Amino acid sequence: MPRLEADRLCLEPRHLALLQGLLRRHVPGAEAWAYGSRVSGGAHETSDLDLVLLDPADPGRAVEGWTALKEALQASSLPILVEVHPWSALPETFQREIERAYVVIQEGGGTVG
């Protein structure tokens, strides 16, 4: 799977730091991948950020805390919409598409990638 470097993510460093703090707080054991236009290079200033959460121990299981994360993202000072989905809820065809180009925002086990 082509993991891209975080500097390929079209997101200001201060916004990435805020996002990573929310991830650590609400889904510390999850792996978080960014995908879509903010990874592929087609983003503009108001583009949303697409995230998918995986449980590294069991990718077929939904990540505990992801709904709390969604609420925290909506209440945060991030100036963009962040769409977050559990990997397990996505169709396999969409999972394969994401695997073509993504950036790891948080590695499983609570460390930041």
Automatic annotation (TrEMBL):
Keywords: Transferase
Keyword flag Transferase: yes
The protein's name in its UniProt record: Nucleotidyltransferase
Domain of life: Bacteria
Native source organism of the sequence: Azotobacter chroococcum NCIMB 8003
Annotated GO MF terms: nucleotidyltransferase activity
InterPro entries: NT_sf, Polymerase_NTP_transf_dom
Domain spans labelled Polymerase nucleotidyl transferase: 23-98
Keyword Transferase belongs to the record: yes
